[in-house]
Amino acid sequence: MATLSIENLTYAPAGRDKPVLRNLTATFSGGRFSLLTGPSGSGKTTLLRLLAGLTPLPAGATVTFDGQALSAVPPTQRSATVALMFQEPSTQFTMDTVTNELRFVLENQNVAPAAMPAKITAALDFVGIAALKDRRLMELSGGEQQKVALAIIVAMNSDVILLDEPFASIDPPTRQVLLEKLVHLCTHAGKTIILADHDLSGYSHLIDHLSLLTNGQMTQLSAAATQERLAAFTPARLRLAHVTLPPTDQPVSLQGTALGLQQGDRQLVTPQDLRFLSHHTTLITGPNGSGKSTLLRALVRLGKYQGKLTFQNHDIQRIRRKVYARNVGLMFQTARAQFLNVTLAEELALSQQHGNRDYFTPERVHAAMEQLQLAGRENQVIYSLSSGQQKKFQLLCMLMMAPDVLLLDEPLKGLDLASIHAALDLLATTQAALHLTIILISHQLSGLDDFVDYHLALADQHLTYRDQEVAP
User: Fold this and answer.
1) For the residues of 252-320, what is the DSSP string, one character each?
2) S-S: 386 plus which of 41, 200, 201, 403, CB 3.0-4.6 Å?
3) Where in the cell is it found (predicted)?
4) To the nearest 10°, the Cα dihedral for 143, 148, 153, 154?
């Protein structure tokens, strides 16, 4: 067990006038499970990077593990003390396949080659992804990548484990299983775990305490305050009580006939007929790796599919690519993969140039930036934003493009509850004004009940519309 202590930590990122962390002092007891939450951009990722030694500590600040300063631990030995799982796991990978990535990590810890197979197998089994061991990392879904990143952390066997939004792309049932496995690491292996998350579902009986990071300060909440925050994420709050089955007599925007999906030799979706109604919102749910993102990529002609897809009764393969792209647009799961410029102002100008300029006037864009708490950041480098801020900005840029059909792949990933409500309000307002058809994938269900019209569940290679039930 390792107790982690922070003293006098004040940190301002390069180019920022105001510090994101202010004279922070805190202690995380060894062998305990601590949950850290706070608004998007409050400094959670920055703090975890400082604790892991990936960002140099500023003068006057100290981070110690059982009294030993982090700076005194040689970089080659640091992974035995502390390990960090990134918010975007794909930025953490180096090798091509799952097994090779795990082997690479163990090699860097000087693990004997003969001991590696057992450690790799144990880590994959612990997370429940033995079937992925020979898969190529970049062919995995976002949720599968997060599971691999967690397996890597388990294999490293560090005393202190730092996790940055580790379940943002993971389906709810798997999320609960992995949470309980993390508790097992605390109680049976003596690991100290600090986990940053916006989605607080499933934590009520598992964590030792909840800390709130806001305005540069960290506050450990009382038991009553903790339960009050967790209450917003109870199963009853996540229920889809207002969805209905789509009627058969309404206009259809996208339609699949004998539509099937494959990935290599794996059949993801057995050929079936499928309809998406115009000017409505359809939520797609399903287990990680089941083919949800693959479906969205097929709908925008970025991936192969079986059968036939039509947009407004026209075969999408017969529509000119440029014309189709203006009518059906995809918001990627990873925000930074969508940006083409350096600053927010440059990206906004590009979206204004190619999007719906009649609706998104400069005044309306400014109002949206204020609504998403991004106003005043126009000259900031996009990649210096937090992941949650990047996600909100990505959503605004896609709405400014205003395609007839907007496909959203995990649009709420990494957003705090206030940001979720702001994003959904902006979505709903824009959809009503421009009569958009919205199809979204989301494992984050909080706030979606009043926004979603139809729920399409992907399970056992088949897509089925469901009526008024808790999404899997």
Assistant:
1) EEEEEEEEEEEETTEEEEEEEEEEEETTSEEEEE--TTSSHHHHHHHHTTSS--EEEEEETTEEGGGS-
2) 41
3) Cell membrane
4) 110
State how beta strands 306-311 and 252-263 pair.
antiparallel
> Helix, strand or coil for residue 381?
strand
Active site includes 378?
no
pLDDT band (50, 70, 90) for residue 249: very high
pLDDT at residue 178 is higher than 80: yes
Looking only at the bridges linking them, the beta strands covering 62-65 and 4-11 are antiparallel
Task: From 59, 74, 76, select the one nearest 10 (Cα to Cα).
Answer: 59
What are the structure tokens assigned to 243, written together? 């969805």
Among candidate residues 165, 228, 346, 370, the one labeled active-site is: 165
Rounded Cα–Cα distance for residues 395 and 411 (Å): 7
Residue 307 pLDDT > 70? yes
Q: At what angle do helices 142-156 and 98-108 cross, to 10 degrees?
A: 30
Percent of the chain with pLDDT over 90: 73
- CA distances, 111 to each of 77, 105, 108, 133, 242 (Å): 12, 9, 8, 19, 54
Task: Identify the band that residue 90 occupies on the pLDDT scale cut at 50, 70 and 90.
Answer: confident
DSSP strands (E only) in 135-202: 160-164, 192-196
Q: Which two tokens stand for residue 336?
A: 């930074």
Mean pLDDT on 388-408: 96
